[in-house]
Automatic annotation (TrEMBL):
Statement: the UniProt record of this protein carries the keyword Magnesium: no
CDD domains: Argininosuccinate_lyase
Keyword Cell inner membrane assigned: no
Name of the encoding gene: argH
Pathway: Amino-acid biosynthesis; L-arginine biosynthesis; L-arginine from L-ornithine and carbamoyl phosphate: step 3/3
UniProt cross-references to PROSITE patterns, sorted A to Z: FUMARATE_LYASES
EC number: 4.3.2.1
Catalytic activity: 2-(N(omega)-L-arginino)succinate = fumarate + L-arginine
Organism, as annotated: Kurthia gibsonii
Name of the protein described by the UniProt record: Argininosuccinate lyase
Similarity field: Belongs to the lyase 1 family. Argininosuccinate lyase subfamily.
GO molecular function: argininosuccinate lyase activity
Residue ranges of every copy of the Argininosuccinate lyase C-terminal domain listed in the record: 365-433
Amino acid sequence: MSSKAWGGRFQKSAEAWVDEFGASIGFDQQLVTEDLEGSIAHVTMLGKCGILQADEVDAILKGLHTLQEKAENQELEFKVEHEDIHLNLEKMLIDLIGPVGGKLHTGRSRNDQVATDMHLFLKKRVTEVIALIKKLQQAIVEQAEAHIDTIAPGYTHLQRAQPISFAHHLMTYFWMLERDQQRFTESMKRIDVSPLGAGALAGTTFPIDRELSAELMGFSAVYQNSIDAVSDRDFIVEFLSNSSLLMAHLSRFAEEIIIWSTDEFKFIELDDAFSTGSSIMPQKKNPDMAELIRGKAGRTYGNLMGLLTVLKGIPLAYNKDMQEDKEGMFDTLHTVVGSLKIFEGMVRTMVVNEEVLHKAVHNDFSNATELADYLATKGMPFREAHEVTGKLVFTCIQKGIYLLDLPLEEMQKESTLLEADVYDVLAPVAAVKRRHSLGGTGFEQVTKQIQHAKTLL
Ligand code: ARG
């Protein structure tokens, strides 16, 4: 008898290097816990449905529990010759309890088995990812709460635009992460579905109870079409897509943290614990962790593109191409979990240089809109007010001063609507405070926003 679980039909064995090319055990051993969980549910169901005898079920369950223990203690020795996690565990079971172990695979196929493992695996991991997103959101809220009154320059085109509350800027990432978190949560209803019992593709002749095995594994639903159950990998694509968007958001935040940490900006200082030095330049403190996260967004997009391309055009039902769904998923998961943990620590410990921000916002023209709004409030059409303000900005640039330094007589040369109270509205703090529109940067709005955000955590 061939050493292969499927060897009966074969006259000769493949050479080891060919086996190695086809094997997935190098990476799918990460599914060991889920594969055993699935098998326990399957054999329990086989017993309940009278397909296996109680003593057979007991023997198999005992063997599976032993394998669980060994797995926890890292005592299992996986072999490439047994191809993948499913066949490795089956072989171990038979070695452990004898030929009765061969009854475990009654009424199932590796095709529904592997899909089940992936669903079980993602269900747990997505729950972890959601919890980590929330922790990062919490850290953002804490920094934001401490900086509601910290006025900072707001940018468009990376040029100073309008003064804002620094908290308002930070909270932007809270809301992006909130949507990321929602996307992962919503994807759960498509992950939380059992493919087990679909067999190779067509279902099985054994009187199985798919709902029972689903319930034993804690799934809320079962796939309604056996071919779909073994062919679907869209729940993984969705995970990779949600992760890519999350990493896009993190990479934007990372980029800002990198810019803010430069000598040119100095808006923040990262904690030493999240920075690195240079092997040659003693003065350096590099934001390596933020740079890495910015860079790692790339690999998550690659994994998404990779799986979409694998799936494109493959006929129903299972094809070995689908074994390529795993490494990208493991890699993305590892990337996302690591990035979220680092980010949380980085945000929690960063120090905001309030003085630098204060100085920055008092040495620019980001209050120009205030001047235009002032004139518009006094009845001047906004277009005209824009023109007048532009001219005053130009005058200031020529004189090397800012709008707050421009004497009233100079201002009135452009418009007599400008009166002494214009200096009040030009103060950056006033510019922020007066933006009470819903969701605006006004202090009251930002405070409300943070209160609302906290109810979501
Ligand atoms: N290792 C395979 C995978 O990851 C398991 C399913 C194999 N099924 C098969 N019919 N060859 O996709």
